[in-house]
Amino acid sequence: MNWGSVSEFFAMGGYGLYVWGSYGVALVVFVVEPLLARARHRRALVGDEELGE
Amino acid sequence: MLRLYTFAAPVRFYALTGALLPWLWLAVALLGAAGLYMGFFVAPTDATQGEAYRIIFIHVPAAWLSMLLYLAMAFWAAIGWAFKARMASMLARAIAPTGALFTVLALVTGALWGQPTWGTWWVWDARLTSELILLFLFLGYIALVNAIEDPQRADPAGALLALVGAVNVPVIYFSVRWWNTLHQGATISLTAAPKMAETMLQAMLLTTLACWAYAFAVVFMRARAIVLEREQDASWVSALRGSAS
């Protein structure tokens, strides 16, 4: 085990901003991209004729 | 050959990937959780870089995937062009946005790693510059195939761009050897003994597999949408729409 406490875990030895920044950006991508793909699939499933509204 | 073409039919592809998707997402969750647990709780602190090195568990998979997805995109685009295989061209289009996003991730996590270890977010060295060019190639491919309305003309144009740009991939990969760069050398080599602790390596392989599964899942989702968009006059698509509404 690397961490003595929860705050130590979040501090990442002083590199918290960089480490959590990296994983934060990755998390946003991995959540938003599938949602966009799903929305596109749903639009395609409904068909163009109902897109006008 | 006949069997190969059966699966290449858009309707087969649509059904097969639909069945695969839940399993792929399950693999993403399990591999991702195992990899992050290994990376944050089992792998030790790095002797020279402290905790900052833990960015490696997302940075290296993202960089690998950016190159692999480019080659996959160029491969399917070329197959689609050479054999007039519609499904292959659709797959190339579905890969491009995911490849571009992994390239952005590699660049952003690289900048966040560079600042604490090199003292700078960005340098114009060979590795970083060639990876940035990869992003422009992805964006150029996406812009080109979307700018030409007729798929029969857009797909070959995109394939040509993708194939010419493929020369950049070995440049990225070998850049740390061919030139003196600020970027560190290869993390993993097939010929040399690993330079990192075994648990670090295992964590990185697990997060890489998670990214692979993710890339398959999201590319399949987008490809299924593209199939419906392109095959909207096919009877099976009309039937599908009838049952969906």
What does this structure look like?
The complex is a heterodimer of chains A (53) and B (245). Chain A has 53 residues and is mainly alpha-helical. Helix content of chain A is 70%, strand content 0%. By secondary structure, chain B is mostly helical. Chain B has a domain at 59-229. Chain B is built from nine helices and no strands. Chain A binds chain B through residues 1-3, 9, 12-15, 18-19, 21-23, 25-26, 29-30, 33-34, 37-38, 40-41, 43-48, and chain B through 40-41, 44-45, 50-52, 54-55, 58-59, 62, 97-98, 101, 104-105, 108-109, 112-113, 115-116, 214, 217-218, 221-222, 224-226, 228-229, 232, 240-241, 244-245.
- How far is the N terminus from the C terminus of chain B? 37 Å
Mean pLDDT of chain A: 89
What global shape of chain B is seen? Answer: globular
Structural class of chain A: mainly alpha
Q: Strand percentage of chain B, roughly?
A: under 5%
Q: Which two chains have the most extensive interface, and how many residues on each? A: A-B, 29 and 38 residues
Instruction: Indicate the percent of residues in helices of chain B.
Output: over 70%
- Classify the oligomer: heterodimer
The helix/strand order of chain B is HHHHHHHHH
Quick overview of this protein structure:
The complex is a heterodimer of chains A (53) and B (245). Chain A is built from 2 helices and no strands.
List keywords for this structure.
heterodimer; A: 53 residues; mainly alpha; B: 245 residues; 78% helix; globular
